[in-house]
Structure formats: structure tokens, C-alpha cells
Amino acid sequence: MENCTEDYELQDGIVLFQLVVYIPVLCLGTPLNMIAFWVFCCKLKKWTETRVYMINLMVADSFLLFALPFLIYFTKYNHPTDKLCLFIQNIYFTNIPMSILIITLIAIDRYIAIKFPLKAKILRSPLKSASICGFLWITLIIYSHLRPKFNAKKEQFCFRKQSAQPNYPTLFSVIFGYFIPLGIVIFCSVQVITCLKKKMATSPHETKLIQKAIHIVSVNLCVFVACFSPFHIAMLLRFAVDVAGACSMLSEVRSSIYISACLANSNCCLDAFCYYFAAKEFPEFPSLFHTCVLRRSRTNQSQESQPPTNQVMT
Questions:
Q1: CA–CA separation, 127 vs 120, rounded Å?
Q2: Is residue 309 part of a domain?
Q3: Residue 221 burial by CB count (10 A; 0-12/13-18/19+): exposed, middle or buried?
């Protein structure tokens, strides 16, 4: 089984759904990303790890916004796999994983700041953050260029997998490009929220700051899971259908991929919204965590320095 017939009426409905989603995303995402660039590049004075990550995230989201009109055009007019198609595919398959990995790095950075405050000065620095982002950019750009060569059969139309042969590079990308980062983001976010909730605030102002921090971390986690999970689950379903040879299910799975991709791509708009307000409320997000844990460490040290009480041996 090589190809399955397509439902062109369903395809027209998908194009309409893309227009309904992508037009507001483009209208909101473009100015929001411009504002975010202005805030993180010009407004903030001190270079921090979060600032480096956010500038890279804005770059990735901006390239993704650039690719969205082409996605609509390619879907509607069955554009062939030519040089323009490969160029847009390279942009798309570089910047979607880059957005996911940068959000993962932000979660790891927060986790290190609150769990290992004494080691954080060694483990964290803006230069190290920039070096990590540079390495990821180079790796993903190379992978996106080599990705078409891994496919056994060249697809006829752009952004459309018609063959029913299992695509193992896609399985690799889904597992290592999303589900492993998803586990890391969930673990780090839960640990950060737990640590902040356990902290005993010494003033109402500090309590309010920590509540806002918990809210921001929670919202970022929910947006990440809600935007990217449906698309990558649909990609796993497509792989399973190809392996099973269930051609009758391909139409529904293809539709779910297109629809969930709209939700995933809308994250380029939501990123700017979430992290802009995070920067507005907390220009030095890690510093808050660092201060919290240092105070807790001092409390533990003072308790350990007290004379031990008599204990009953059993």
C-alpha cells in the first residue's frame, strides 16, 4: 500500500479552519512579538539567562509567523515539493523544535535557580545560555536540511505525507523533540511550584510576589502542554496507522494533524503574551527564586546550629 485517496471536501474545510486560526494569530502575534523584542532587547538593562532565552524564543516565533501564510497556500493549492517548499519546511522544522527546547531551557533554568542556589552562580550565566542556544540553532538547522534525505520516498506535495510508509525520522523527532522535553518541563515546573509553596513568606509583599510567580509558572506549563501535545500525539497516531497499514483511518488522522498543528503554531502568539507579562512582573525571575532558597538555607543552618535535644532511644 503506497497511497491513499484524499477527501478534497475535507481539505477545503481544513483550509478554512487554518484561515480562521492563523489570521488572528498573525494579527496578534506580529505586534506582540515586536513588543516582546522591544522589551527584551531595549527595555531591560541587565543581561540575564531569561533575557537570552526569550530573545531566542522570539526569533524562533517570528520565523514561524513568517511561515504561516505559506502553510495555508501549500495546503490549498497542493504545492509541489520544490525549492520554495524545502525552504519553508526548513524554517518550520527548525523553529517549532527550537521553541519547544527554549521553553524547556527556561524551565530548567528556573529549577536550578530554586533547587541549587549555591551552585547556580557556576551553572548559570548569560554567556552559557547564549552558547547553548547557539548550539541548538546549529544542530536543528543541520537536522532540518538533512531531514528530507532520511525519507525513503520523496513526497509529491509540500507539507503532505501521502505515502503510507512509516516515517522513522518523524518518530525520532516526536519522542526526542517533544515528549522528553515535556517530561522535563513538567518535572521542573512542579518542583518550582512545590518549593515556592513550601516557603514561609516573611511579609505580605513577598507572599504576593510568590503567588504571582506560581501563577506565571503554572500558566506557562498549561500553555505548553495544551498547544503542543495534541499535535505530537496526532503525529504518533499517524506513525501507528502507517505501521498497521490502516488506510481507512488516514483521512481522519490527517485531519487531526492539520487541526492540531494550528493549535501548536498558535503558540508563537501565546509565547509573546505569556513571557512579556512575566518579564513585566518579574524582570529578574531567577533572582526571586535565588533569594527564597537562600533564606530557607539560612533557616536550616540556624536550626542545625542549635544544641540537640534529648532523644528517646528505642
A1: 14
A2: no
A3: buried
Give tens-digit pLDDT for 31-66: 888 888 887 788 777 888 888 998 899 899 999 999
Cβ 136 vs Cβ 130: under 8 Å: no
Contact 260, 236 (CB under 8 A): no
Instruction: Find the helix or strand (DSSP H, E) in which 214 lies.
Output: helix 204-244
Is 288 inside any structural domain? no
State the total domains in the chain. 1
Residue matched to cell numbers 494569530:
25
Cα-based distances in Å from 268 to 17, 159, 211, 262, 284: 18, 19, 26, 11, 23
> Cell triple for residue 130?
547564549
Give residues with Cβ within 8 angstroms of 12, minimum separation 6. Answer: 76
Q: Are 5 and 244 spatial neighbours (Cβ–Cβ below 8 Å)?
A: no
4-8: long-range contacts at Cβ-Cβ below 8 A with a sequence spacing of 24 or more? Answer: 4/162, 4/164, 4/247, 4/250, 4/251, 6/162, 6/251, 6/254, 7/251
The CA distance from 96 to 147, in Å, is 14
- Longest CA–CA separation in the chain, Å: 81
Kindly report, residue by residue over 231-278, the tens digit of the pLDDT. 999 999 988 888 887 777 778 888 899 899 999 999 888 876 666 655
Q: Return the pLDDT at 292.
A: 55
Is residue 53 within 8 A of residue 129, CB to CB? The reply is: yes
Report the C-alpha dihedral over residues 128, 217, 260, 160, rounded to 10 degrees: 0
Domain of residue 169, residue span: 8-283
Query: CATH number, domain at 147?
Result: 1.20.1070.10
d(CA 200, CA 78): 59
**Does residue 313 belong to any structural domain of this protein?**
no
The answer to whether residue 310 sits within a structural domain is: no
